[in-house]
Amino acid sequence: MMMYITNPQRNGESDYRARWSLLLIGMMAAMLVLVGRAVNLQVVDRQFLKHQGDLRHMGVLPVPAHRGRILDRNGDLLATSCPVKSIWVNPKEFEASEAQYQAFAGLVGDTSEGLKQRLGERNSKRAFVYLKRRISPELADQVMALGLPGVYAEEEYRRYYPTGEVAAHVLGFTDIDDKGQEGMELAFEGHLKGVEGAKRILRDGKRRIIEDVDSVRQPVAGKDLSVSIDQRLQYLAYRELKKTVQQHRAKSGALVMLDAKTGEVLAMVNQPSFNPNGRNGTVVGSTRNRAVTDLFEPGSTMKPFAVACALEMGAFRANAVINTSPGVMHVGTNVVKDVHNYGVLDVAGVLRKSSNVGVTKMALALPPDKFWGFYNALGFGQTLGTGFPGEVQGRMPDRKGLRPFAQATLSFGYGVSASPLQLARAYLALANDGAMPAVSMLKLDRPSPQTQVMSKLTATAVRGMLEGVVSAEGTAIKAAIPGFRVAGKTGTVKKSAGRGGYQASSYIAVFAGMAPASDPRLVTVVMIDEPSAGEYYGGAVAAPAFASVMESGLRLLNVLPDRDLGPSILSAQKDEIF
Length: 578
Fold this sequence. Notes:
alpha+beta; Penicillin-binding protein 2a (Domain 2)
């Protein structure tokens, strides 16, 4: 028997060579794959690496658009957006020495400790923290000159209002992102705001912006807006209203001036006011445009419309006389009173003396639905359609089943509520020969539509009667303007205490009027809420403010005086007694 003996050493060497060969083959294959991949990426498909590099170093940033300007009717600037910068930090990148911390904190209006807290543990994991919004480019340049890593400056716009408090309630304001929040800024946000652009930027390995590469999309600036306000008249109205509110220690006040022919709002001011350029410390409620958003009972300023309705329907003639004795009148279980017993008055005298009894007798002689419809046609209980944010509708009593006492109180301005702007618009009908134009807060290129709510004869007659109110025999001698005939009506209204009652010693003083009465150019309403310096009658508180604003406004607009044309003439014949 033959035996074959193998050499274990030779078998081991053979296995080792085999494994080594396999390893070398594997390494060569891997190298060939890597070389092939490198050739593919760098020669055949070079765009892949470029794309990956762009993802890590290229980025797209928004480019803010310039917001449109707001101009007054004469082209004067009321609101514009100025270029500013905002400082932001990436806490992950930020590094600074103690000295740099102090310098940085001083520039952004903070302390070194406060800055460390803002960029410390609370925001350490964030990649974006605003430090200072909307600062001047010069200050931003000083911040960037420190050369701190992770600190960036972003271009933005800040809204600036040259008139400050004067036109604040009309214009409103924008937020920190330049978006409209109140007033015309909010109402016409879509018109004023632009379309944001975009740009491609290049970053370094630490994500810092080192270059603007190109523009992806150009920003589109917002459109300018021309409002109906006349900045000169606005200043006059603001100054006089503020003076009146302070003089009479009133709670608030509002003044509206309209173009009698077009219905455009030439001035609209409120007190208290606020500065839209810096609202820190603004009193709560002071940003509200009371002339549009607040309701009040107009009181005796509604009496001319009751008289106009009676004349228009033929229930009374302009030369009719009414017996108001003894100054008290029972309407069902309720009582209507005058301040004094005025005895027998003509229709003009009812307005001149502001007789509640006289106007009640006229109102109750009319069909309730016709009477209500006349007031409704004047716009009471309806929105004006100006588009101004917060515009109120007002309130009117229910048309169905209008009870006699509700009809009586409606005739002298209780049980109905309106804003100062609504009341001013109704007076347009008297000023414009019975035709009432729509109210506009934008400058009009063409006349606005008008609604004929009464005849020219009626409007002219009532306007002539209202001239008697602004006379020595009337309640508003302080509304007189040298050289001009003035027509208007006072109102002294007790403030509601809720649930149908009224406060004993809280009043609203009102005056609504127009000038020159021969051919009115301006209509103005002044409302003073809770005068507390002693006087509270509309003729003593609101009428002087009306006269001051209107006198300056008429002269500013080069309106010719009409006093030499003589007073309005009403028939002296008194042939009817009611």
